[in-house]
């Protein structure tokens, strides 16, 4: 299990939280995702044997947010 904290810009409300948490949580291999709206951070715990960090970043990007 790998845990990362991503810097994500463009998040501003509860809809942003739900969009990111909902879509990332659906990915096979993701065990946990938590958005910290006030700090612009997203914590993700995932199995790197089942999913890549790039796929997680792409999923967040697809929701309209910028991952640094």
From TrEMBL:
It comes from the Bacteria. Keywords: Chaperone, Copper, Cytoplasm, Metal-binding. Residues 2-68 form the HMA domain. It is found in: Cytoplasm. Gene3D superfamilies: 3.30.70.100. Transmembrane segments: none annotated. NCBIfam families: chaper_CopZ_Bs, copper ion binding protein. This is Copper chaperone CopZ. It comes from Peribacillus huizhouensis.
């Amino acid at each position: 299990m790998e845990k990362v904290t991503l810097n994500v810009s463009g998040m501003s409300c509860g809809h942003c939280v739900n969009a990111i948490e909902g879509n990332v949580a659906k990915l096979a291999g993701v065990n946990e995702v938590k958005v910290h709206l006030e700090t612009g951070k997203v914590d993700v715990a995932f199995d790197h044997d089942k999913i890549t960090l790039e796929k997680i970043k792409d999923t967040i990007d697809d929701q309209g947010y910028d991952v640094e």
